[in-house]
Write a structure and sequence with these properties.
single chain; TIM Barrel; 3 domains; 8-stranded parallel barrel; 18 strands
Amino acid sequence: MLQIPPLQFDGRNVGGLTRRMRRAGRSSPRYRFVIAALAAFAVAMSAMAANRPLPEYLKSAVVYQVVLRNITAEGTFSAAEKKLEHIRDAGVDVVYLTPFVEMDRDADISGWSRRQKESGCNSPLNPYRIENYDKIDAEYGGDADFDSFCAKAHALGMKVFLDLVYCHCGPNNVIKDIVPDAIQRDANGNLRKNNYNFLLLDFASKDVRKYLIDSMLNWIRRGCDGFRCDIGYRVPLEFWEEAARKCREVKPDLVLINEGYPTEYLKTAFDSCYNFPWSFTIRRMIVPGTPGGKSPKKGTFADKMAVIRKYEATAPENSLFLCFMDNHDTAMSDKERRFDRLKPVEAGNAGFVLTFLRRGLPLVFNGNEIADNALSSIFMPDDRTLPRKTVNWGRAATPEGQKRLALIRSLAKLRHEMPVFAEGTQEWVTDGEGQGAVAFLRRIGDTAVFVAANLTDKPVCFKPSCGFRAAADGAALLSEDGALSEDGECRLGPWGYVVQPLP
């Protein structure tokens, strides 16, 4: 009779059992059947583990991206810490920090990215070209400054997420001295680089994987609540699965966000991924021609929305896509064409209504909440006496800035106080897309809310074919130059929007 040792069925010991049986010469069809059954069971159990419930706070959360170099003129943790109360007052739940660890100072421009060279800063310092994953760069302050920043954020009730840059590293990254096979090599033995001119880490090395996971654990112990994983889809999924398992043994509610497109990464490791098709399509409706990849390039707006829906349907049920109007890449690439620089504040407001109230995880880039219209860049000159591209905080005192901040606060309040926006289902209403309007219904139990926004500077009028209509005495939760009538007609002025409860 076959003796099977006790198993926990977590997918980690099936391989060992297989090897023990083979060493014992047990390779008959009967035993192969048992092994196949155990493997299938382990896969099923892994899938069940992957569908773990999301941390409760994430369902209604608002994420705020902080680029230390941008958010204040000083560019330090100490200066940014003084902005945390403002950030919390805007309705933010999560502060996500772009990389602040030690940057590579190698002056050889052959190891600089194209954008780094084009920035005109003539500096080797790039937050995404890293020399040491465990050391805070002196530009931002010291360990005590980071600890104080985290403590203040946590005291205000906010989580802190860090940016992981594990696909590539700088030419002098210390991992090369610790792990001999840390960098990928081509067939001729040359170190491999990606299209940024950065060295590619070799995830075939178990020592590389251990080093990087240990770094994650280090930051978790120092107060990190989650990670946004830079171009995470270019790192093997197997690494993220291993990292997620080991890190969540220490912090069960750890959040992982993939800056990536493939939804299969959501099945086993990540809690959320970037919704590039949605975000870039919405942005390009407001400012045509803005840069950005991974979005539909041909067809009408209605055609592109259909492509987005098809993409979103590939994700596991109840996935939370991270949706943005702006981030460090777009703000830098848009240059003079930033939407708050080129369009009226109402244009961005229409986009934020959709971004906050659709099913997903909304991202606010530092300064978006005051309609910041400054030129932006993650690259800065080494000489601090030279001009630096930072948030134009003067916009907070303008009518535009005050209008945006009031809206962001109202949208965050709806997400926090109405379960329909945190956990409700979403049904697309496509009737206005031919005119440039986006609409959807959020529903939970007996509560249903209709959301529509016009992404053009021309009036839009459509009648939802599904028959949605406002109650005779039903006031909108939120609206500007938009309404859903009792007879079921939705009218939206230029950049208008309406958030309407249904009877």
